[in-house]
Amino acid sequence: MEVAVLNISGKETGKKVSLDDAIFGIEPSEHTVYLEVKQYLAAQRQGTHKAKERAEIAKSTRKIKKQKGTGTARAGSAKSPVFRGGGRVFGPRPRNYDFKLNKAQKKLAKRSVLSQKLKDNEIKVLEDFNFEAPKTKDFIEVLKALGLETKKTLFVLGGANENVYLSSRNLQKTKVVNNSELNVYDLINASEVVFLEGSLAQVQENLSK
């Protein structure tokens, strides 16, 4: 399938790029996309939660009352979970929430989302551009020309482009990533995906392996 290449003024340049049907034209696998998003969100969790259990409480170990004759249950330590300030039973411990997902599944998830985005006309291809200096105002002009100033937009660069990245950093609804940083969560979270012309060949090469 061919898609027209736009310039930063939002007009067609007359060039077209070919999109591989094996990447942008497959039947989406919803379950694989679900697993990929689940893994991404799990990896963001710090997992540093911790509660002190009975053995970790700093309290005296003396017997706090006699065994019999009190009319209440026996108690041997102030560290007991039944007392205020005592240890917690089976409290949370630090852990890693990440889990393994095969490379083939991760690539299938990306291809599924890209195929759905193209089907919904939510993909644009923009010719490579740069700014002389980082300036948010210039980036906003590009968004307006493309009709994306009110939409969540993901820009995919072909390589490091510091001026473009810095110009977009303060915009709440816009995210700029390199093709190597492209992930399913960002693709789903964006209403529109804008590929710079130089990034498409690298994205298609990575996902076709």
Q: How would you portray this structure in words?
A:
With 209 residues, the chain is α/β, with parallel strands linked by helices. The chain folds into 2 domains: 2-45 and 100-208, Ribosomal protein L4/L1 (Ribosomal Protein L4, Chain: A, 3-Layer(aba) Sandwich), CATH 3.40.1370; 47-96, no CATH class. Helix content is 34%, strand content 15%. It has 7 helices and 6 strands; from the N terminus they run ββαααβαβαβαβα. Strands 2-1-3-6-4-5 form a 6-stranded mixed sheet. Strand 4, helix 5 (162-168) and strand 5 form a beta-alpha-beta unit. The longest helix is centred in the middle third of the chain and has 17 residues, at 103-119. The protein is elongated and about 95 Å long. It starts with a strand and ends with a helix. The model has no long low-confidence stretch (mean pLDDT 92).
Overall geometric form: elongated
Second-tier CATH architecture of the largest domain: 3-Layer(aba) Sandwich
* Count of discrete structural domains: 2
* CATH topology grouping of the largest domain: Ribosomal Protein L4, Chain: A
Major pleated sheet = 6 strands, mixed
Structural class by sheet pairing and helices: alpha/beta
Mean pLDDT: 92
Subunit structure: Part of the 50S ribosomal subunit.
Keywords: Ribonucleoprotein, Ribosomal protein, RNA-binding, rRNA-binding
Region (Disordered): 57-78
GO molecular function, one term: rRNA binding
